[in-house]
Amino acid sequence: MSQRYVLISPCRNESEYMRQTLDTVVAQSVRPAKWVIVDDGSTDDTPRILAEYAARHDWITIVTRKDRGKRAVGPGVIEAFYEGYAAIEPKDYEFLCKLDLDLNLPPRYFEILIQRMQANPLIATCSGKAYVHRDGQLVAENHGDETSLGMTKFYRVTCFQGIGGFVREVMWDGIDNHKCRMMGWVACSWDEPELRFVHLRPMGSSQTGILTGRMRHGFGQYFMGTGFWYMLASAIFRIGDKPAVIGSAAMMWGWIKSALQRQPRYGDDEFRRFLRRYQWRSLFVGKKRATEEIDRRNRVEARLPS
What we know:
The chain has helices spanning 18-26, 46-56, 75-85, 109-119, 157-162, 172-182, 210-224, 228-237, 246-260, 269-285, 287-301; strands at 5-11, 34-40, 60-65, 95-99, 103-104, 123-127, 129-134, 137-140, 152-156, 186-189, 196-199. By secondary structure, it is α/β, with parallel strands linked by helices. The chain has eleven helices and eleven strands. A hairpin with a 2-residue loop joins strand 7 (129-134) and strand 8 (137-140). The two termini are 22 Å apart. It is 43% helix and 18% strand. Helix 7 packs across helix 9 (246-260), helix 8 (228-237) packs antiparallel against helix 9 (246-260) and helix 10 (269-285) packs across helix 11 (287-301).
C-alpha cells in the first residue's frame, strides 16, 4: 500500500499557534505528499507566516478565501476544508487528513497512523489523543477510543468518499465516526506516548467563550440525533471538566433549547436509528463494549480474523 497522504487545513487568524503545527509537520518522519492550507480570511499575521513556509516547501499550497468578517465553526470550517479538497485529486492519495493549525504533533505521528491502517483494512479513520497544558501539566482532553478526533481526522480516501465526506454542520466530527461504523468500518483513536499531541486551544472553546462552545456542542448532539437520556448521561460524565458543573449544564441546555425550538435534525433516518441503538446499548453495557460488539460484527461480516 502507498504511504501517500494529503493534509487539508482550514485556518483563520492562527498566528499565535500555527508555527508549532507547521514545524511539527515539516519534522514528520513520513511527510505529506501535499499540504493544502486554506486561509479563511485571516486578518492577523497568518498570511505572512503561510507565505514564508510555502516559499520554503514546495509541497505546501495556500488557498485564500475572502474574509467573511468572523470565525465560523462547524459549517464554516467544513466549507473551507472543501475548498482545499477541490484543489486536490483525491485518487492520487491513499490517505487524507483534516488538520487544525493549533496542534503540536509528535514526530512519528502520521507514520504510525499509516502503519495501523495498513495492518487493519477495516479502519476508515483514526487519530492519536489530544492533551492540553493545564496548571503546568499535560492533561488529557478525554476523548473516547471509538472516535477519531476532529482536529486531526486521518482518513482512508476510499472510506471518506464512501461515507459521503463531512456533513456541513456543527457535529460533522461525530456523524462521520458513527457513519463509518454503520457502513462496516472502524473509527478509533489511541492514547499512546508516540500518538499524543498537544492541543493549544482547549476543546469546546469559542471565540465568544467556553460556555458558548459547550452550548454549541449540545446543539450539535441534538442535530446529530442524540437522545435525551444519553445526552444527560454524557453531561453527568463530564461534570468535572472545567468549567466544572456549569460546562455540563451549558451542554445540556444547548440540547434542551434546540429541542424546545424544534431545530432541524440530521436528515438521514437510517443513521439516526443506528445512532439511537448504539447509544442505548452504550447506556446498558458501556460505550467500550457497545463499540466492540459492532466492530466484532463488522469483522465477521468482512470475513476477517478476530
